[in-house]
Specification:
The radius of gyration is 14 Å and the shape is globular. Helices cover about 25% and strands about 40% of the residues. It is built from 3 helices and 7 strands; from the N terminus they run αββββαββαβ. The two termini are about 25 Å apart.
């Protein structure tokens, strides 16, 4: 885990309950872009997206293996931040519970809870932003 140093304005923007787009790569190399809700922990450099195990985004990350890279972009008008990094999918109960707790804190509602709930964890290693 790596601490991600961010300006206070970027941390504040990432704390706002916005949605984002998650970009993963399909097995044929084409991008799959989908809207998501997510959380970001700057202390560990981890972004989390809960989803179904059978969702295309989760399948894309799993198919990419340890080299799977993603981009997660939150925008509001001309203000935006993109978090990039390596991703993995897990159904570990403790990690799922942490993802659900963080989601509920950020969005003030529980995330959907399908029977095949998993979390995509992104080890953020690059942050790009504009107008923050």
């Amino acid at each position: 885990m790596t601490t991600v140093e961010l300006p206070a304005t970027t941390r504040a923007f990432l704390a706002d309950p916005h949605t984002a787009t998650l970009t993963t790569l399909r097995p044929d190399g084409t991008p799959h872009v989908t809207p998501v809700r997510f959380t970001f922990d700057a202390a560990t450099g981890t972004a989390r997206v809960t989803t179904r195990a059978g969702a295309r985004k989760a399948r894309n990350v799993a198919a990419g293996g340890p080299a799977a890279r993603i981009a997660l972009c939150q925008a509001d008008g001309f203000r935006w931040v993109t978090l990039e990094g390596r991703a993995a999918v897990t159904d570990d109960p403790a990690r799922l519970a942490e993802a659900v707790r963080r989601y509920t804190d950020r969005y003030r509602t529980d995330p959907p809870a399908p029977p095949d709930l998993v979390v995509i964890e992104i080890a953020v290693d690059r942050v790009l932003s504009l107008n923050l």
